[in-house]
Amino acid sequence: MSAAGSSGQRHNNAGDASAPAENVVKKAFPRVDLDGHDLPPSPAPSSPHSGRRYAIATELVYTEGGDQYNASSVPIYQSATFKQTSGSGGGEYDYTRSGNPTRTHLERHLAKIMSAQRALVVSSGMAALDVITRLLRPGDEVVTGDDLYGGTNRLLKYLGSHGGIVVHHVDSTVAENVEAAITPKTAMILLETPTNPLIKIVDIPKIAAIAHRVNPNCLIAVDNTMMSPLLLNPLDLGADIVYESGTKYLSGHHDLMAGVIAVNDTALGERLYFPINTSGCGLSPFDSWLLMRGVKTLKVRMEQQQSNAQLIAEFLESHGFKVRYPGLRSHPQYDLHHSMARGAGAVLSFETGDIGLSERIVESAKLWAISVSFGCVNSLISMPCRMSHASIDAKTRQERAMPEDLIRLCVGIEDPNDLIDDLRRALVQAGAVNVSLDNFQAVQPGDQPAAAAN
Ligand SMILES: Cc1ncc(COP(=O)(O)O)c(C=O)c1O
Ligand SMILES: N[C@@H](CCSC[C@H](N)C(=O)O)C(=O)O
């Protein structure tokens, strides 16, 4: 590979007067490594379409351009290498670790959907967080919440023990707690909202404003997995980096692992591309194609999922369970959530007061698969303390008040009456005393699924 950069020589996607305009990397595009040194350009420049022109339902399915045959579905460029036009390079792509046309197509599409200047796709949500945390240096501090996805907690713990990063976990539902933890060494604030699995809401605009005032150098990174870009755009609320697990709503079928990172700052985008190219965690061509296909149905899936989730949350609440779901008026941060988001999503959790009872409920359900993850077309049931959050040790779970009996429901697109019937039957079979086989009317005639206006 040619050492380009300051020499102005071509890397694998540099300017070529004879190339079509859209293939030319703009000279103004900053190219820096983690230390801010000049680098050759990456092969996936910012989305030419990052300014959205249509409503989200249209943008999700609409793509411009295509390959030389105008294929309606982007081809899977299943190639590790790309032939060059000269000994000094000359091709737009050279090697799939560095860039691949199918991946670029997806990244440009996602940048548009996420209202971002640039999106990058990697092999999982955790790979996305790993890439983001490579912006940190030993001695840096991170402020984050005390209710986080278990894998996020595990990665941060590892950075603390092996990377020299100091991680402060605070109750991030109170912005003042975050403020109090910020020091001159704070390099990143990492937020999740709604939190997984306790469905707490974090005030992104308030925390971003405070953090940028107190320490202008610190970056606000938001995990948007629980909402997806359909329901929440953290970049519009003051975040510097948004990332999400594409394994969930974006793909929607639990047939791939993926992670997405999006930013509005070109230099930051290049700093994030560097570890992706260096380590090789960019999303494969096939998974990029699959994710592209999944994204197109995000709106119809999410609307059905969240309308089902609302009915299920109301059903459980009507039977006396303490239900955590931002679509319920009883959620203590209902107003805050809806001031930021366009919907409540499709993940809820509830307590039964008895671990054994929770286990029996989970195991009695038939339509609800016992499985980790969420955002899939199928409905899932799990016990976070035993499953998705088992990597958080029991002492820490106790300190953070994670109820061991917590059941998490990740609602799919099935008929809501079937889901509620199955849940009611599981509750009765498990011996939940406050539930009878009464006739809860899940869907009233004329009910419409809640619309995710955007
Ligand atoms: C909120 C949240 N963020 C990130 C991740 C990581 O995503 P992935 O499983 O794709 O690595 C998950 C689940 O795994 C999650 O629930
Ligand atoms: N064994 C896995 C657990 C994955 S949990 C996936 C998802 N984020 C969820 O919340 O269900 C692990 O150790 O990471």
Describe the overall structure.
This protein is α/β, with parallel strands linked by helices. It folds into 2 domains: 5-295, Type I PLP-dependent aspartate aminotransferase-like (Major domain) (Aspartate Aminotransferase, domain 2), CATH 3.40.640.10; 298-430, Alpha-Beta Complex (Aspartate Aminotransferase, domain 1), CATH 3.90.1150.10. It has 14 helices and 12 strands. The chain has helices at 56-61, 101-113, 125-133, 150-162, 175-181, 204-214, 228-231, 266-279, 285-295, 298-318, 334-340, 355-364, 394-399, 416-430; strands at residues 118-122, 141-145, 166-170, 186-192, 219-223, 241-245, 259-263, 322-324, 347-351, 369-370, 380-382, 407-410. The protein has a 7-stranded mixed beta sheet, sandwiched between helices. Strands 8-9-12-11-10 form a 5-stranded mixed beta sheet, with helices on one face. Strand 2, helix 4 (150-162) and strand 3 (166-170) form a beta-alpha-beta unit. It is globular and about 75 Å long. The two termini are 44 Å apart. The model is unreliable at 1-34, 44-49 and 442-454 (pLDDT under 50). The ligand N[C@@H](CCSC[C@H](N)C(=O)O)C(=O)O binds next to loops. Residues 149, 151, 196, 372-374, 388, 391 line the site of the ligand N[C@@H](CCSC[C@H](N)C(=O)O)C(=O)O. InterPro entries: Cys/Met-Metab_PyrdxlP-dep_enz, Cys_b_lyase_euk, Cys_met_metab_PP, PyrdxlP-dep_Trfase, PyrdxlP-dep_Trfase_major, PyrdxlP-dep_Trfase_small. One of its GO terms (molecular function) is cysteine-S-conjugate beta-lyase activity. Residues 1-12 have a biased composition (Polar residues).
